[in-house]
Automatic annotation (TrEMBL):
The modification Phosphohistidine is found at residue 73. Mg(2+) binds at residue 76. Its cofactor is Mg(2+). The keyword Nucleotide-binding does not apply. Binds 1 Mg(2+) ion per trimer. Transmembrane segments: none annotated. This is PTS cellobiose transporter subunit IIA.
Amino acid sequence: MEDTIMKIILHAGDARSKSLLALKSVKQGDFEKARCLLEEARQSSVAAHKVQTELIQKEVSGETQTMTLLLVHAQDHLMTALSIRDVVLELINYFEVIEHRLQKLEKEEGK
């Protein structure tokens, strides 16, 4: 059980790290790299979610799970990673719009 829980923590931690790296890439103006990192974060989140789903399916089929602090910690990591990814995605979209508008204004001023 601990190995399974650690997989959730590992994948969720990777997703969180990739999301924050994506935000750093946006600050540097590299939207393409940010989107690639965010996709990697999504894939890690999916991997963590699959492990979580396996635990849920076992419980639904009658295999009781003991609620441990480690399991709560894993759930916390996963939910935090998902939330951070969502926020970073919105920030990327927002900053791309701003970048596009700035470029448009610069073109108009150059005419």
